[in-house]
């Protein structure tokens, strides 16, 4: 099969906000304890942070990390996680039926962020708490000094404010599983009032209101419209979450699920703009896709985990090669909406539905999905282009006209680089891509990276990494025309300079 594409440096979608390559660390399972933090580990630094994990996080160049939840945040008292560690309470975490020791809290997480070179995206509890806890946390984190909460931070050893810029107003408040689940009216009101005072404490912060937990929620998209009705003037972003799985073992259908993500994004944009019109507002609400990934492998094994232990191995999905392909398709989908999606978080970062896994006391290693995420984060910065694409299509169980070629193009003007990300969804054969890139006429091929494997169910382990990229992709550029061979079922990164 053959697909064609035209990219032109003049046909631009928008600058890519680096934060679309964000991720997420929740107090859940072994994400924190045994993940980023394990004091007894041979690589632990003096603060207890695993340096082997930090090294892998740095390789991903993660620009922002959402924290501390997730469902966890809706029952979290942030005050439990600051001050002398030996006086911090052990509490039940009802979201994940675990015990939270509070050894790691806001300040430790901020130290970790600084150590790995990322920013925090802090969530406040709008489940069991409210306006006061939220404004106090902003004051604790961001106010310089001279008030009760800022001086408390100073007394805890953090003279400089953390200056956290991006804040989430709760988490998945539309979900009955959420501690303190609310109706759209109830959430809209509390989010509006919390947002107002949080911005009074620090006018430089940006706020994310909760959209629906996924597009299948019965209240979607009415939830979005009602929440924005209340919060429009106070918030900057609306959140989206989605997870996919291949329970029926139908790879062709599974790889098409990024089309569902695309439709979800379009519907949320439409809803935001509907409220904009209704309010005669000049302001545009942007999207924060702050939870997205594959999540289904661990569902069953999690049922067998006994409640009330510290850091149980929850949500430890082992990702297959086909999962990496879908993650690649989801990344290109985000890029295609660079004009509206300004933040996105691969959920999550370590051990919990994560690209990075650890063994307690043992090594840290890369799952299959590590690679497309890393490639997009490293080479997908600059300006998202709007290519004209012509691809043969197929029909699957849930989708029609699925293009075999899933792609996105990013132009990095500063580095003078063009990168084409391309997934060949074809299970049967390779796809020939002919790309007219004549507006980049002096550019030649830097490399063609490929992630491919014969077995869609292949996984990496702590010992072996059968699913890893090579850069022996077959491509050539002649007079501005790129010809690339995309092997059957493959993730491709074609870099021109
Ligand atoms: O990322 C795992 C969980 O998925 C989060 O805690 C929750 O927000 C979502 O349902």
UniProtKB/TrEMBL annotation:
One Pfam family of this chain: ASD1_dom
Q: Tell me which EC number(s) this protein carries.
A: 3.2.1.55
Class of enzymatic activity (EC top level) = hydrolase
Keyword terms, alphabetized: Carbohydrate metabolism, Glycosidase, Hydrolase
Q: Which GO terms describe its molecular function?
A: alpha-L-arabinofuranosidase activity
What domain of life does the native source organism fall in? Bacteria
Locate the coiled-coil region(s) and give their ranges.
none
- Annotated InterPro entries: Alpha-L-AF_C, ASD1_cat, GH, Glyco_hydro_b
Its quaternary structure? Homohexamer; trimer of dimers.
Q: Which GO terms describe its biological process?
A: L-arabinose metabolic process; polysaccharide catabolic process
Family to which the UniProt record says this protein belongs = Belongs to the glycosyl hydrolase 51 family.
Protein name (record): non-reducing end alpha-L-arabinofuranosidase
Write down the species.
Answer: Novibacillus thermophilus
